[in-house]
Design brief:
The protein is an all-beta fold. 0% of the residues lie in helices and 41% in strands. The strands form 4 sheets. Strands 1, 2, 6, 7 and 11 form a 5-stranded antiparallel sheet that branches. The protein has a 4-stranded mixed sheet with strand order 4-5-8-9, with no helix packed on it. Strands 10-3-12 form a 3-stranded antiparallel sheet, with no helix packed on it. Strand 4 and strand 5 form a beta hairpin. The chain is elongated and about 70 Å long. It starts with 6 loop residues before the first strand and ends in a 19-residue tail after the last strand.
């Protein structure tokens, strides 16, 4: 059970956001709420500076908002996760942050009354298609047994000053 008047964050390390990145995670919650008004809440925020946090919306939206007159560190009307729900997966489009280094924050806040089990997170991932800074030719194909082929790779990091670009090359064989 969480404490009264909680206000805490789980913060990711900084990472580079490619053009089509999507944040996904599984979560489970038992948080205090009445109807669609939350008194205890979890929400996702992003920062590109480490100081100023901006809330982001899941693809299917948040299920609650902080209620009027609730003694919460969050402002009334703030969209959030709350209430009781079984394990479910959420998706957040990170396109607004493409080309930036960001940190993701999972913010939890509670009022000064009832305390429940809490908010659990699992399997956090950021996924995208092939990074923009690498191209290859041919894009796909099969090499018949006992033959060989040439694959050309081009790496271009010129648009990513002060960023470490990483990737994995996997070659699969039958």
């Amino acid at each position: 059970h969480y404490d009264d008047d909680s206000y805490c964050r789980l913060i990711s390390p900084a990472f580079f956001v490619p053009t089509d990145a999507v944040l996904s995670f599984w979560h489970w919650g038992e948080l205090e709420a009445d109807d669609n008004d939350a008194t205890d809440a979890g929400l996702v925020q992003v920062s590109d500076s480490g100081d100023d946090w901006r809330s982001i919306e899941p693809e299917d939206g948040y299920s609650y908002t902080i209620g009027e007159g609730v003694d919460s560190p969050l402002s009334p009307g703030t969209p959030c996760f709350s209430g009781s729900f079984d394990w479910q997966q959420e998706y957040f489009d990170l396109a607004d942050f493409a080309g930036s280094n960001i940190r993701v924050s999972f913010l939890f806040a509670s009022d000064d009354e009832l305390n429940y089990e809490g908010w659990y997170l699992d399997d956090l991932q950021v996924n995208s298609s092939a990074p923009e800074w690498i191209s290859y030719q041919p894009g796909a194909g099969t090499v018949p047994g006992a033959e060989e082929t040439t694959v050309y790779f081009h790496f271009d990091g010129s648009d990513y000053a002060d960023v470490v670009l990483t990737g994995t090359l996997a070659i699969q064989s039958n």
